[in-house]
Design goal:
This protein is α/β, with parallel strands linked by helices. It contains 15 helices and eleven strands. β10 and β11 form a beta hairpin. The chain binds pyridoxal-5'-phosphate (PLP).
Length: 498
């Protein structure tokens, strides 16, 4: 981009914006700050050590009347905001689905804020619209979906799924609608049904097998039962990479059933979809080529800053029919173009595609493959440490880069029979693992979260940050082992009969 030559260096007047000179000065300062921060996010505790209310207490309860200097604002950034940050950029952030943006993505965000277009119509920013079409088609090729799918950007997977399910409803015959997803599906699916006015009872949770994958026979039985009871089944959501364990539903068999039953198949690949960029992981999207829609989140595991979620749809005309309502003042003469406002509930749209374009171009497919492959490799190493340890056990397979496990000290395992109470040992293990997680998180070097699997408190270590290396995973493992040693020694005598 060329430098502007007629830049104004006047200070802010009563009506204008910050002067170009001041913007340049603080802009440089902030970029320097961000560069340092991203080089060493581990200088900060990964989990904010703030008490609730600390940020609010440090801020005035009324807005400033007179404008303040940018220096004063930046001072408060250090004083108030930074201590209240949980650092998702930290390489030892392993909680939830660990994510990170990346420098090219951050620069894309900066530019889209600078352009500040509203890409509701093609004409209100042809570049935003056409770049969205192009980048989403690139990404489609990268994950191996057929050309029949077109993409649309939303903020989050929750909204992508909401729009997909709205389209499914548009295509459905009238009746008391029923939607199906596994008991491991993300809550956004049920929330979508609620938001669309289908009601809580409209979503049926289908049982899963021992590896947390949807049981297709149970799905077929639920559909048959519902039809017999007068319901109108209309949509199945299959998940590729469930939130708790990253299990992969059997999409090919679910697609067969949806074809037979004439149901909309939506695939929630919000987390797992990115992995399909790897040649050796293409299998995870087997069957998805027959879906009606699929969501994936480049802001989860493709180094694009939050927020950016992609909905791929094979029936864009149905999605459009669900949402298009064009008032007179938004009518335009270009009818061969895509007006993205027609494909969702929102009118205004920001220029999200820019940051995706920067990320895809800067790293290239090869660079993305190398980074995701590394994550999967080090997650498998962590899984192997768990498997080899006498004091831990793994609680789910590891198809991607997330490991579910718990501490189960060997001597306790041996004594469980003798104790005569499996339930008592189970309650102790829940307590022990929860306390271990709290202890490790409180120490601030690593951050993990948990789930419940088959009623057991389960630790989850999710790798997805661009800076995470083997040594950070090793650190988490060492921290967990150290916490196990002290806590087991301290709480077991108080909790379990010897
Ligand atoms: N689907 C799955 C499988 C998820 O794991 C998540 C979040 O973790 C979501 C959907 C929701 O994602 P978002 O926060 O983008 O709405």
């Amino acid at each position: 981009m060329k430098n502007a030559t007629d830049e104004s260096s006047k200070p802010m007047d009563a009506l204008g914006d910050m002067s170009a000179e001041e913007f340049r000065r603080y802009g440089h300062q902030l970029i320097d700050w961000v560069a340092d921060y991203l080089s060493h996010p581990e200088r900060y505790p990964v989990l904010s050590q703030n008490q609730p209310g600390a940020v609010k207490a440090a801020l005035p309860n009324a807005p400033p009347t007179a404008g303040e200097s940018f220096d004063a604002i930046l001072e408060d950034l250090d004083r108030v905001i930074l201590p209240g940050m949980t650092h998702w950029n930290h390489p030892a952030f392993f909680a939830y689905f660990s994510i990170s943006g990346s420098a090219p993505g951050i620069l894309g965000e900066l530019l889209s804020a600078a352009f500040n277009v509203n890409a509701m119509l093609w004409r209100t920013s042809p570049s935003a619209t056409e770049l969205e079409e192009v980048t989403l088609d690139w990404l489609r090729q990268m994950i191996g979906l057929p050309e029949a799918f077109a993409g649309v950007l939303y903020d989050t997977a929750s909204i992508s799924s909401l729009c997909a399910i709205a389209a499914a409803r548009e295509a459905a015959p009238p009746g008391r609608l029923r939607l199906y997803a596994s008991e491991q599906a993300h809550s956004s699916i049920e929330k979508s049904a609620i938001t669309l006015g289908l009601g809580r009872g409209a979503t049926r949770a289908i049982a899963t097998d021992a590896e947390f994958r949807m049981d297709v026979a149970a799905l077929a039985a639920a559909i048959a039962e519902d039809r017999a009871a007068g319901y109108q089944p209309f949509c199945v959501t299959a998940t590729v990479g469930t939130t708790s364990t990253t299990s992969i539903d059997p999409v090919p068999q679910i697609a067969d059933l949806c074809e037979r039953e004439k149901l909309w198949l939506h695939v929630d690949a919000a987390y797992g979809g990115s992995a399909a960029v790897l040649p050796e992981m293409k299998w995870i999207l087997a069957g998805a080529e027959r879906a009606d829609s699929l969501v994936m989140n480049p802001h989860k595991w493709l180094f694009v800053p939050v927020d950016l979620s992609v909905l791929y749809c094979r029936r864009m005309e149905v999605l459009k029919a669900a949402f298009s309502l064009v008032p007179e003042y938004l009518r335009t003469s270009e009818d061969e173009v895509r007006n993205y406002m027609d494909y969702g509930p929102q009118l205004g749209r920001r220029f999200r595609a820019l940051k995706l374009w920067f990320v895809l171009r800067y790293f290239g497919t090869d660079g993305i493959i190398a980074r995701l492959r590394h994550h999967i490799e080090i997650a498998k190493e962590m899984a192997a440490w768990v498997d080899e340890s006498e004091n831990f056990e793994r609680l789910a397979p590891v198809p991607f880069a997330t490991v579910c496990f718990r501490a189960y000290p060997q001597d306790l395992r041996e004594r469980v029979g003798a104790l005569g109470s499996q339930a008592e040992a189970g309650a102790y293990l829940d307590l022990l693992n929860e306390r271990m997680m709290e202890e490790v998180n409180h120490r601030g070097k690593v951050f993990l979260s948990h789930t419940k699997l088959n009623g057991r408190f389960t630790l989850r270590l999710a790798i997805g940050n661009i800076r995470t290396r083997r040594e950070h995973v090793r650190l988490a493992w060492d921290e967990l082992n150290a916490a196990l040693e002290t806590l087991d020694a301290n709480i077991r005598p108080l909790t379990l009969r010897s």
